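User: Sequence in, structure out. Go.
Assistant: Echoing your sequence, followed by the structure tokens.
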Amino acid sequence: MQKFNHNLIEGLGKLTEVISLSALPYVNKRADRIDETLDGIRYIGIKNNTGSIHKFSNLFFLYREGSGIIKKYRPKCIICDAIALSPCVISKLLGKRFNIPVIGIITDLPGMLGVENTAMQKTVKRMHNFDGYILLTEQMNEIVNPNHKPYIIMEGLCASQLPELYQGEKRKIILYSGSLWKNDAGIEYLVQGFIKANLAEYELHLYGTGELVPWIEEISKDHPNVKYMGCVTNSEMVKIQSESMLLVNPRPSNEEFCKYSFPSKTIEYMASGTPVLMTRLPGVPAEYFDYVYTIEDETSEGLCKTLKIILSKDEQDLKQFGVCAREFVKAGKSQKRQSERVYKFSQEINELF
């Protein structure tokens, strides 16, 4: 979510004047207001109080700062993160007071439709009254937009500058990075499928955190080419991805929440220039599947067969397939391209308002 919002702010800042107003991450100490300009974008972080008044002070300072900004600059549009409670509430209040359209960015559905929970129902209902929407998947629109307001689908965007394409010889590494939880990530059948494939010259590297870490470490004792690699910085991960032979996302496609999410690692993986193997997630637009290999049988046996087929291909063919995927996201999902879409959409909302 943070990477999505940051890339969008940067991209919009190259097209028009942007002021970013936010509450600082909560820490157990008081923090003063910040006001800095970077690359032409003004970033304001409100004063951060602690204890029982924290949430109330967030609402107060966001409203006061927002009112001052609007009175001085008269922006044509407010874009807010609809997941965050305080910015969402205040954006709507400011929009109503100053007659400015408010567009909600929805990168996730709370509880992934486990809305029997009262708190989750309230959170989803809070998303119903925007003047426009930026959504990750088409299916989200059915849930958050009952009033049929204008919307666009923007599943993600690349950073403005992609890292240099790796020119060296690929390491014989199959890589997964992300959550290491049972059931919803597909890690178990990934590991078991890799072991069944008996790819002695390859290693399976898993990065991230979750309850399956001890299980992976235990398996590594009998299968040394299955390795838990811990956590690394984003810049380190980008380098590791570009040097690997194959990047895998085995997330099961039959989970209900998959219709309402787009894994950010999809674009990150493809931008690396390394071939990607993933399931046919329903929240991923069909155009992506021309540029990735797919897991059609989401079992250890199915993955075993798929890995053998892919890794039997000529290495130059594999490299070229990865490069084509990189060019696809670079051309159509770049920060520049996606920000232009959002800017045009905001202008259209303003004209309708």
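User: And one key feature?
Assistant: The two ends are 28 Å apart (CA to CA).
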